[in-house]
Amino acid sequence: MPGGTGIIPAPDPVPLPAPVWLLQVLLVVTFLLHLVPMNLTVGGTMYLSLGELTRRLSEPMRQWITSYLPVTTAFTITTGVAPLLFLQVVYGQLFFPAAILIAWAWLAVIAALLLGYYGMYAYVLSSEQLGRWCTWVIVGSTLMFLYIAFAFSNAITLMSTPFRWWIMWQERNPSTNINLNIWEPTLFPRFAHFVLGAAAFFGLVTALYAVTVARKRDESAAKQMHRTGVLWFIVPTVLNYAVGPIFLFTHEPAVWQQYLGANVWATVLLWASVALSVVAVLSAGLSLRTAAPFPWLLVSTVAVSLTIVGMVGVRFWLRLQLMSIHAPEVRLHELPVQPQWGMLIFFVLVLLAGLGLVTWMVLQLQRAYAVPKTESPSGSR
Ligand code: HEM
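# protoporphyrin IX containing FE complex -> structure
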């Protein structure tokens, strides 16, 4: 009976189209791109759901979130495709078995995506017609998006722990069972860390939008948005100061010790990222106490951007560490490589052109929504 890591399939005999390091860089970069719209979508829908459920949704906040949701949801999906391809190419030996083992839960991502997307559009375009159902429609969409994030966390954690595969296959055959990786102690802290991060990122972008764009339309509504945004940034970030360590310490000691001095680079990367987030929290808080909040929020945004880059680096490192412990037979540097430089250059050029196009589209959207200064409603619905 296969046991331990002897279960890992042989690598794909087709050579990789680029060196492993380059594919890893592209995976990290495209995953970072995925995080931006994903955080805005998840954070925004969570805010709308909470506002609708408590009947304390302010109209300017509703207008701001519904103005961007269709765009960020579409970008969450499209920016997910590239990292999915790089993940499969580099870590296919681990990723495919994990996805097969949680087969139904993994396939359900497509259904959740369609339902969540439809619900979000229904809420944005026809809130009036939905009447009292509009609360449940947006709550449903939010749960669908959270499920997708949860399914990804399941696949990502299961791929790094192949010692669970054989037991799972035998005891809970995926063809007849709905499997998740809930025996993994890091799963829920990991998921919570991402969800809180999404709420915080949404909060900071909201505050930034309030003091730059919304301010030109309605000063008092913008002030309220600024306060709400900063609150949504600070509270989840402070909660993450508890969830983050739980996430770290639910890993085996050989892993977390790396981030507490055993490996200087891992330690510096993690704690410098945490320190930057503290800078971001302080400057966001200070932005509420000054007549010129923009510079403070700018400092906060730069610090948070660096925190996210650092944390994505930590996440990448963590995967390599887990692989070296649980899947030592997967030796990435031994994978056959036959570079197709033409295709790669083409990919990078199209990616850059796409990013330029997206920037232009966002500017156009912002211009379309920027109406002249009027008395807009700022009370609760
Ligand atoms: C609203 C929809 C989505 C949400 C809320 C979402 C959220 C997330 C979250 C939270 C993670 C991190 C999971 C972890 O590390 O534990 C993640 C990873 C990932 N997502 Fe998405 N996602 C969405 C849609 C998609 C789609 C449609 C794709 C692909 C077409 C995709 C591709 C990926 C990939 C490849 C990763 C892992 C990257 C890596 O491990 O390096 N996502 N997503």
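# post-check
Residues 18-184 form one domain.
The chain has two domains: 18-184, 185-334.
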